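>> Question from a student workshop board

For tomorrow's exercise we were told to take the sequence and the ligand below, predict the bound structure, and bring the output to class. My setup keeps failing. Could a helper post the expected result so I can at least see what it should look like? The ligand is pyridoxal-5'-phosphate.
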Amino acid sequence: MTQRIANFNPGPAALPLPVLEEIQQEFLDFRSSGMSILEISHRSKLFESVLNDAAERTKRLLKLDHRYQVLFLQGGASLQFCMVPMNLAIPGKPSAYVDTGTWASNAIKEARVLEKDVHVVASSQDREYTYIPSSIPVPPGASYLHITSNNTIRGTQWDRFPDAGDTPLVSDMSSDIFSRAFDPAPFGFIYAGAQKNAGPAGVTLVVIRNDLLERVPANLPTMLKYTTFAGKNSMYNTPPCFAVYVVRLVLKWIEETVGGLEKMENLNRRKAKLLYDYLDSQDFYRGTAEPGSRSLMNVTFRLPSEELEQKFIRESLAESLGGLKGHRSVGGCRASLYNAVGMEWVESLVSFMKRFVEKNG
Ligand SMILES: *Cc1c(COP(=O)(O)O)cnc(C)c1O
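>> Workshop helper replied:
Here is what the output should look like for this input. Compare the format with yours to find the bug.
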């Protein structure tokens, strides 16, 4: 038996073990084709059925009706930072953004590079991005309101989404898509790099409401237009076949093994509660996000000194608890509790944290 560790990596991150096993099992001969999934044509019926099933499962899990399409793109979530304003900003109208830290800030930066009329309508920069702003004034006639549903680096998450009236919500859901149930009705556009909570690196999941496709300007490069991919079932050119295949298996696991997004959310809430309850019960570790804005996915915390943080990360790894180092831009520690992270891993983490305090507190 190979020894697998409790994997708290922020992304690429843990994948469900049954998914990895299924990949292994059918790796050399995919569905009796005599070929690996890596070797078959993206134009084959076999691959088309994989991609279509991944899209259908996305629609079922997110409760998307016929007005929405699911696309599989490349370039990571980061390419969406420029594709969103290029495609969806209506000329002469403002685009509203909420700045909740690194990824949100990057999205704003790219919209500004394109000289769009960017309005940062709310920001949590004043308190080091430790919270989600509560008042979100959307300018009349805005093209969209862009938010980052979960802030992977700062450990904050929108609990309830802002009410933008008729303005479509656009959200970067890279680090919490498929982690909880939500009403998709206010959303015009959702994007997520798969490598946090939906699969491996190499594919970006995009959900677009059909009416937003009408905004796409004709004079954009082909590869940067949503209409190119929407009109060709994500296969204008070769899609990232293997990554799409793994995303499908992850979604199948959520639907058929976990039992849907409500059950997934319930599990995620229990995992996060275990760790936050412990953080709140002592004063050696200090959670960095304000309690009302805490993320269920990324739990960020500090120890009394950077030396202790380094020791914590070193010793946790020696006990097969991996990926607990905070993002290099903020330091500290972070436990990412994505869907594939089991309750028993979080229990091991809390038990390790208690022992660490006994020796170092
Ligand atoms: C990781 C992350 C990104 C960057 O994703 P890439 O696919 O590497 O471009 C963007 N937004 C959020 C919220 C993230 O967590």
